[in-house]
Amino acid sequence: MTATDRSLELINAAAQAAADKLAHDIIAYDVSDVLSITDAFLLASAPNDRQVKSIVDEIEERLSKDLGAKPVRREGDREARWVLLDYVDIVVHVQHSEERVFYALERLWKDCPQLELPADAKATRGKGQEYAQAQAADGGVGGELS
Fold this sequence. Notes:
Elements: H1 5-20, E1 24-30, E2 40-46, H2 49-67, E3 73-75, E4 82-86, E5 90-96, H3 97-103, H4 105-109, H5 119-122, H6 127-137
Parallel strand pairs: 2-5
Antiparallel strand pairs: 1-2, 3-4, 4-5
Helix pairs in contact: 1-2
């Protein structure tokens, strides 16, 4: 079994929305062969809580407006360290960069096929590492991105 066309449409729209809000390291996996509850996971991260919220809001707005999709569940909103949007067909994880490293969801799903994403989303790969290195070079002081 592979992800449905609808799932791929949702994943691509969510990935583009995340990229538009400067998310880092956007990646998607087809989990349809190993999970019966959803077809695909989208992972994205941001260096601060405010940006996590901004990315989540943009994904939710874009999927609702463009595709008529609303999440059946939204979790982690209060802390904005790891927000999960469950659209049944897909699940979107937007994590604070620290949570992304700690939980390393990529390791859990590494055997699942990666899904092709829009060019803007693919261009975000490695941005989390670049941001962390720049922050370390600046002594950890700097403005937040939004």
